[in-house]
Design brief:
The complex is a heterodimer. Chain A is mainly β. Chain A is 0% helix and 51% strand. The termini of chain A are far apart. Chain B starts with a strand and ends with a strand. The chains are: A mainly beta, B mainly beta.
Chain lengths: 112, 110
Amino acid sequence: DAGVTQSPTHLIKTRGQQVTLRCSPKSGHDTVSWYQQALGQGPQFIFQYYEEEERQRGNFPDRFSGHQYPNYSSELNVNALLLGDSALYLCASSEPGVTEAFFGQGTRLTVV
Amino acid sequence: RKEVEQDPGPFNVPEGATVAFNCTYSNSASQSFFWYRQDCRKEPKLLMSVYSSGNEDGRFTAQLNRASQYISLLIRDSKLSDSATYLCAVNSASWGKLQFGAGTQVVVTP
C-alpha cells in the first residue's frame, strides 16, 4: 500500500516564476493538507482540501492556491515566487473524520 | 505568544538513558494531540497520538495535562536511532489544521 506520494522531490525556480507541486494521498484517505516548513521551524499550515473544496486556509497570501481532484489527489500552486518561498512543502492526508495525518516525503523548493 | 511551543534542545542523552520533554499549547479548546518524529531533511512521521489517559508504545510514553495545557513525551532506554527532532502537533477540531511546534532535537550518544 503506497503511502502519500509527492512530486517532484526537488525543484529550483527563479524569482517571479510559478510552480505546481503534486500530491497523491494514501489509499482510503480523502482529505489533503499542505504545509510549508522552513529550516529550523515546524510545518506551517497552508490549506486543506476535502471533497474538492478548500475547507480551511492558513495565513498564506493568495499567491498560494490549490486544487483537489475527484480521485483525491491534490496540487499546490504558487505564483510570483519570492526568495522567501524556499522551503520544504509537505502534503499530508487523513482518513474521513480522523485527525491523524500522514505526510509525504515533501518537495524541496529553492527559489533563486 | 506562539500557539504551540517546544524547547528546541538539543537534549544530549547517553544511550540507554531516559529523556523527557514537553510541549505547551495556548488554545484551551484543543482536542487532538500528536507527537511526530522528523529526521534531518525528511518528512515528519507520526510517532503516536496522545490520549487523555496517557498512552505508551514500547519505550515511548505520552501524557496530556489539560489543566496546565501541555503534552509530554518520555523515551526510555534511548537508542542511537532515536536521534531526531520531535514535533508536537495540536488540533482544535476533528478535522482541519495541525498546529506544530518548532520541534525538540534529541541527540543520543554512545
